[in-house]
Design goal:
Layout: H1 15-23, H2 30-40, H3 47-59, E1 61-64, H4 72-83, E2 97-100, H5 105-112, E3 118-123, H6 133-145, E4 150-154, H7 157-161, H8 165-178, E5 188-192, H9 201-213, E6 218-220, H10 232-249, E7 254-256, H11 264-277, E8 290-291, H12 294-308
Parallel strand pairs: 1-2, 1-8, 2-3, 3-4, 4-5, 5-6, 6-7
Length: 320
Amino acid sequence: MPTTLTAFADVTTSDSALRRFLHGLPGVDAVGLEARAASLGTRSIKTTAKAYAIDLAISMIDLTTLEGADTPGKVRALSAKAVHPDPTDRTTPTTAAVCVYPDMVATAKAALNGADVKVASVATAFPAGRAALPVKLADTADAVAAGADEIDMVIDRGAFLAGRYLDTYELIKAVKEACVRPDGTAARLKVIFETGELSTYDNIRRASWIGMLAGADFIKTSTGKVGVNATPANTLLMLEAVRDFRAQTGIQIGVKPAGGIRTTKDAIKFLVLVNETAGEDWLSNHWFRFGASSLLNDLLMQRQKLSTGRYSGPDYVTVD
């Protein structure tokens, strides 16, 4: 099995070549996709498996605050929660990351103080992506210089929907290069498609392949700032894309659904999708994340219920 993108070298040499490749991908059977996603969501999870799934889901959360009213105090509190989600039970896993705006990266990094929690930062004029390329690259470089371990970028949906596929590819490549530090190490890059604005499943498949060909470490559904965010169907489609991409290149890419995943039941449905579609290799926070904050509290309440037999309620978890 090949382990490079050599087989796809000619695909990105021109806009016409990339368009031919993307429009040559198999069309998505929308009815079949949604039916399979719904079917997988009905799987029954037993108590022991549920306890494992809850801890796994906690460990996959990018605990996020992306509001204009964010303060250093709020970011420090969120970072403390990421390290000890349930202060009354130190067996609770840490979350995968804390996700903040670039100007809050240094604050989060200092608050985490070497804990095994990554600092992720949105960049490239999040969430709309409406800025000139030099601004987007400066936004990325600023976050990386401040200590970001991961960058969540947004594509230019206008360019993509206008059929300027090579421009979308080149943007991702340029941001990928901006993630590299002077010492040669690099922040991992998550590429956000804003699937709710891409209109069709075929477009989501095409965007997924552009992101993977351009060097994304993760492909991500959404910003959480629009009406339609992560759904089982669009996440299933992206999981199929990363599975097929690894089969053809040997390169593994992560997936991050974001927005609208609020309950333990929701999270477990997504974990079933991962296991049944991409496989066990993706069942770790190195390859799968949840972009969520309210989800964590429900996971903690369900975890407490499993261990004590009692449902504590929202007053027993911190408000983010």
